[in-house]
Amino acid sequence: MKLEAILAKLKEHTPEILGSKKFSKYAVMVPLVLKGDEVHVLFEVRSLQLKRQPGEICFPGGKIDSHDEDAEAAAIRETNEELRIDREEISKVYPLDYMVSPFGMIIYPYAGFIKNLEKVNPNPSEVGEVFTVPLSFFFEKEPEIYHIEFKMEPEKNFPFDLIVGGENYNWRARGMEEYFYLYEDKVIWGLTARILAHFIELIRGE
């Protein structure tokens, strides 16, 4: 292959996260509502009918479909479907930092304002209940953070003879942090808590 052809290919390339074409992509909405004069964050409790994570607390969201215009459109669509509200009820939608999960997922979170809380009518096939938490609670309460380490276990036919150190190779430790917020009898944790913590840091200006 000639140098000119190689350089032309490089010039045309738009960088993205290496391997991201194989990742599942999800969009999530952090819904803000007004109760009186106070801003609240709305959460869902996943229906017990669901096979995946039944009963856990989350934000509206789901997998980005091929017919979604972009991640923002997917976040809005999922919020419409799960809370059964009209598109017009959602405004002021802004992106947060996207997350790359160690489990082969990219999550695109957004924050948006739901105008009329009383129009929220959760879809029972996906949502068991909804509840809100005053935003001030998260300003006053820092999340509890716990660490998880992953154990490295190469497959049986791993070619140790091809690497320096062989079976005694010093694998770099890998891990992740899990965030927890405890509000009354609710436990908000996992990706939902991580997105929430980022959202709080962002509006605090930290």
Automatic annotation (TrEMBL):
GO molecular function annotations of the record: coenzyme A diphosphatase activity; metal ion binding
InterPro entries for this protein: CoAse, NUDIX_hydrolase-like_dom_sf, NUDIX_hydrolase_dom
Needed co-factor(s): Mg(2+); Mn(2+)
PANTHER family for this protein: MITOCHONDRIAL COENZYME A DIPHOSPHATASE NUDT8 (PTHR12992:SF11), NUDIX HYDROLASE (PTHR12992)
CDD domains xref list: NUDIX_CoAse_Nudt7
Domain Nudix hydrolase: 23-157
This protein's name: CoA pyrophosphatase
Pfam families: NUDIX (PF00293)
Record key words, sorted: Hydrolase, Magnesium, Manganese, Metal-binding
